[in-house]
Amino acid sequence: MEESGLPRARRGCSHPGMRLSVVSGGFAPVADGVGLVELAESCGLDGVWLAEHVGFRDCVVPAAAGLARTSRVDVGVAGPAPASRHPGLLAMELASLAELGPGRVRAQVGLGGEPLVARLGGSHRDAVRTAREFVTVLRALLAGERVTGTFAGATFDGLRLAHAAPVALDLLAMRPRMLELAAEVADGVSLSAGASAAYLTRVVRSLRTSGGFRVTAMAVGAVAESERAALAAVEPAFRMLPPVLAEGAAGRRELAFVATPDTVADELARYAATGIDELALTLFGDPHHLPGTLRLLATHCP
User: Name one Pfam family in it (predicted).
Assistant: First the structure.
């Protein structure tokens, strides 16, 4: 791959039905993230997303440990950005993870939260171009191409991975231009938590392509004995959710996964009806109840 041109993206593989995964935000101890991977596999979920935020825990270490301790569940990393990773290094990390878990690794990449990446000297200036180059150069490296040039602010001089491996890449996106870019250059798109059903449905309709493009919806959620208790459990997360995704929502209840044991199936069906390919839940509540909650979710997933 030379600086003069960027190759067009390949598409990944599709999965029937709505996939169900769980998210670790990277704020808890590393051991908790690894344990979540093992728990998700034992409970029958499709995957786990291990996220990172600048200044907190990274996503690669728990992903590697989780892959080494499991054999079936998919393990994804979420949040690597141009400000925090040279794409050459990130490609090496992703290829190494794929060696530990062939066919089980996926990545969600983006620009990162602007206040956090600013601590590393990063910004969202020229966001679309930077995201395009970041995704495309990662794809080239993971495909075993030799890269020379400057992409997403990173310089390459003949870099080629000795052990390249195919890893699907999703773009973290919310606004129209980034959503369009995801459809153009990535294997899928990851939509931020806090999205209404109307927003999800509209995005799915606008981005649906043939060939397995995956739409993943992140969501905060809780399962409790009453809907009021579940809503109270996720309440702290609402102040961090982007209002741009609240399209058509009558209230906060519609922006999260809120259920009792008796309504889990209905809540899963509500998300599935939007047409998304995967629901990725960040669960709040008593951690002692997490195993039972995951088993309940896996049992009722469409």
Answer: Bac_luciferase
143: buried, middle or exposed (CB in 10 Å: 19+, 13-18, 0-12)?
middle
Task: List the pLDDT tens digit at each of the 302 positions of the chain.
Answer: 665 444 333 333 334 589 999 999 999 999 999 999 999 999 999 999 999 988 899 999 999 999 999 999 999 999 999 999 999 999 999 999 999 999 999 999 998 776 776 777 777 788 999 999 999 999 999 999 999 999 999 999 999 999 999 999 999 998 899 999 999 999 999 999 999 999 999 999 998 765 689 999 999 999 999 999 999 999 988 877 777 676 666 678 889 999 999 999 999 999 999 999 999 999 999 999 999 999 999 999 87
Distance, in Å, from the CA atom of 274 to the CA atom of 217, rounded to the nearest integer, reads: 10
**Cβ(142)–Cβ(95) below 8 Å:** yes
Residue 49: partners with Cβ closer than 8 Å, 6 or more residues away: 21, 22, 23, 24, 76, 77, 78, 108, 218, 280
- The helix (H) or strand (E) run that includes residue 21 is strand 19-24
Pairing of strands 168-173, 47-51: unpaired
| Global confidence as pTM | 0.91
Q: How far apart are CA 35 and CA 299, in angstroms?
A: 20
Distance separating alpha carbons of residues 296 and 71, to the nearest angstrom: 22
Task: Please give the helix or strand (H or E) that residue 222 lies within, else none.
Answer: strand 214-223
- What CATH number has the domain bearing residue 177? 3.20.20.30
| Alpha carbons 38 and 43: distance in angstroms, whole number | 9
Q: Which residues contact 110 (CB under 8 A, 6 or more apart)?
A: 79, 81, 131, 171, 172, 173, 190
Q: Domain containing 55: what range?
A: 19-300
The amino acid sitting at 32 is D
